[in-house]
Write a structure and sequence with these properties.
The chain is globular. A hairpin with a 5-residue loop joins strand 12 and strand 13. Helix 1 crosses helix 8, helix 4 runs parallel beside helix 5 and helix 8 runs antiparallel to helix 9. By secondary structure, it is of the alpha/beta class. The longest helix is centred in the middle third of the chain and has 17 residues. The mean pLDDT is about 95. Helix content is about 40%, strand content about 25%. The structure holds 6-O-phosphono-beta-D-tagatofuranose (TA6). 6-O-phosphono-beta-D-tagatofuranose binds next to strand 2.
Length: about 300
């Protein structure tokens, strides 16, 4: 089973609006509410691909109930710790120029007992899981070394841990050497202190991260694919050209595909190909963190992976 951690779930509210002007009243043309948080996108993709997936984290209030209902509609199994605070909402404004402006709420305050309860649940889920995937931010009062703690626990159980987060959560998390990370160029700079502006520099930093004990380091190059460091090799992944409609959630879809590849025991090349196909398939859908299995299969045929 793949266990997906989404500690800071959210109702993602997507507004269609003409334009955004500071200090003005603006009326949205439409609003769409979906279950979000990066982990929920990961869980959705892995579920669509047919794997046994369980999503966990904290949920509270009416917003938490909304997410539970949505997960049921999406066919995603969930086992969340109930908290007193309310699950957050994240707002995305799509303006007529097709730019997306986001406002992400911080999330509820998690009490000490609530965190303890979650950790007990996690220990239990670890035993039943083969892979753990964690994405995104954490709610208020959750310690910044939470992912480090969760990775150490997974390591003791011999379970692979995929970590896709940012800032201090990532910095502390990598101290526990997760199996997989997916930093962007700014995050690489934050971790290694070195600016990267071209492929050669990215490869150099991927190698450093590998030497730190992280088995697989993936860096997205956007529409140009990605670079993946695994064992002593660097793979260049090229994806077919597509007409992107909504690339938000493509990183999460990549993680979902990667988790599925690992779960199925694919070799690294096939795992990367599935991940890249999922990231690309998400970008041609309007819905964030969604894809179609048949589209993934088609795109996978055109993914090119070379060792450089
Ligand atoms: O970028 C959009 C998104 O994936 C939304 O689903 C929203 O919930 C947000 O990211 C969450 O990101 P965070 O890092 O705050 O957990």
């Amino acid at each position: 089973m793949i266990t997906v951690l989404n500690l800071n779930a959210s109702i993602d509210k997507r507004y269609e609006i003409k334009d955004i002007e500071k200090g003005k009243v603006m009326r949205a043309r439409s609003v769409e509410n979906t279950a979000g948080g990066k982990g929920i996108h990961v869980a959705n993709v892995a579920t669509i691909l047919g794997e046994d997936v369980l999503a966990t984290g904290f949920l509270g209030g009416k917003t938490g109930e909304f997410i539970e209902d949505k997960l049921k509609d999406m066919g995603i199994k969930g086992d969340f710790s109930k908290v007193e605070g309310s699950t957050r909402e994240c707002l995305a404004f799509i303006t007529d120029d097709l730019e997306q402006t986001e406002v992400l709420e911080p999330g509820p305050c998690i009490k000490e007992e609530e965190l303890k309860e979650f950790l007990i649940k996690y220990d239990d889920l670890l035993k039943k899981s083969s892979i753990i995937s964690a994405s995104g931010s954490v709610p208020k009062k959750v310690p910044k070394d939470i992912y480090k703690t969760l990775i150490e626990k997974a390591r003791k159980e011999g379970k692979k841990f995929l970590l896709d987060t940012s800032g201090e959560l990532l910095l502390k998390g990598i101290e526990a050497k997760p199996f997989f990370i997916k930093p962007n160029q700014d995050e690489i700079e934050m971790i290694t202190g070195n600016k990267v502006s071209n492929e050669k520099e990215i490869i150099k930093e991927i190698k450093k991260l590998r030497e730190m004990g992280i088995e697989c380091v993936t860096v997205s190059l956007g529409k140009d694919g990605s670079l993946v460091g695994y064992k002593d090799k660097i793979y260049k992944v090229e994806v077919p050209k597509i007409k992107a409609i909504n690339p938000v959630g493509s990183g999460d879809s990549f993680v979902g595909g990667f988790a599925v590849g690992l779960e199925r025991g694919y070799n690294i090349k096939d795992t990367i190909a599935l991940a890249a196909a999922c990231g690309t398939a998400n970008a041609i859908e309007e819905e964030t963190g969604f894809l179609r299995k048949e589209v993934v299969d088609e795109i996978a045929k055109d993914i090119k992976i070379s060792v450089i």
